[in-house]
Amino acid sequence: MTLQQLQYFLAAIEHGTFSAAADALYMAQPSLSEQIRRLETELGVALFVRAGRRLVLTEAGRALRPEAERTLEAAARAAASVADVRELRAGTATFGTFGDAPTWLIGNVAAAFRRRHPDVRLRVVGLNSSEVADEVREGSVEAGLVVLPIDDAGLDVRPAMEDELVYVSAAPERVSGPIAIERLADAPLILYDARWGWEDPTRRALLARAQRAGMRLEPAIEVEEVGNALDLAARGLGDTVISASISLRRGALPSALRYVSFDPPLHETFAFITRRDAVLSPATRELIALAERQLADMEARRAAA
Fold first, then answer.
1. Taking CA 102 as the corner, what is the angle to CA 101 and CA 106, rounded to the nearest 5 degrees?
2. What CATH number does the domain containing 9 carry?
3. Residue 97 belongs to domain with CATH number
4. Among 27, 124, 175, 232, which has the minimal tally of Cβ within 10 Å of its Cβ?
5. Are 181 and 226 within one domain?
6. What are 234-255's pLDDT values in tens digits?
7. Do the domain assignments include residue 156?
8. Which family does it belong to (predicted)?
């Protein structure tokens, strides 16, 4: 039994004939008649008898009528209950980002979203990229922006942009020119994402290059937040590595710090992730679109610099 069959059943009652009911529903009469026949076959009873040119309900048809009406009314209420969410008039949009995602990126996306949809609650979860992947995979978060590589089992991964990793130091002699990975072996390194260690994607990019050069990297200090790493580097306690999108943003670096590229340049890739074959809510689709625009603007500004 389907909602469509119940709709056809009630239309036949209202209009008195299968032909008139089909006309009212803008469909072919044989199709409507066939669906009602299938409904009668499933229920094992006749619902109508003919009296002249008009249809008359049987006892079974009279018993079904109020139940059909209640079922269609309940279905209509169910559809209406999600209309506000579908049309972005209510609900909550949840989005995961890597922990050191630029403040300006999150701020601009959140501000644009709230301007467009002031009645939708917004929850942006800042985690390590590996955690974001786990949250999306488990369904706790619909989508996220991560730094690759991640474990992509069960996920759709869509690369969004590439960013350069740069070396940051308060010591002028260590940032006088592009730095080879071999020089990091003798540098006092301050690395963030301490809890994830070498599972962090940024650290893995450094580690892969160091291993190809046959060397080991050992941080002198580990902290959780990139802001803490920059603060300690500004105090002269060591050097750190961050995304150029952060360091090139006005005011992001303490005045004591300078940065240089690696030799050859070292890059990381930002990507949007969702559960494989998931149907995203309208709010999450809107968040991704806004974030894509912000990243495109960032690339355009960087190219023009």
1. 85
2. 1.10.10.10
3. 3.40.190.10
4. 27
5. yes
6. 999 999 998 887 666 656 678 8
7. no
8. Belongs to the LysR transcriptional regulatory family.
Q: Which helix (H) or strand (E) holds 138?
A: helix 129-138
pLDDT digits (tens, 9 = 90+) for 159-201: 988 888 999 999 999 999 999 998 888 889 999 888 888 888 8
The pLDDT assigned to 80 comes to: 59
CB 179 within 8 A of CB 260: yes
| pLDDT of res. 305 | 61
Question: 270-284 burial, b if ≥16 CB within 10 A, otherwise e?
Answer: bbbbbbeeeeebebb
- Enclosing domain of residue 60: 3-81
Same-domain check for residues 205 and 227: yes
Among 81, 110, 137, give the residue marking a domain's end.
Answer: 81
Phi and psi (nearest 5°) for 144?
-155, 165
Q: What are phi and psi of 184, to 5 degrees?
A: -70, -20
Amino acid at site 8:
Y
Q: How many domains does the chain have?
A: 3
Q: How many CB atoms lie within 10 A of CB 76?
A: 11
Asked if residue 155 belongs to a domain, the reply is no
Q: Residue type at 210?
A: A
Q: What is the mean pLDDT of residues 8-19?
A: 92
State CA 262 to chain mean position distance: 32
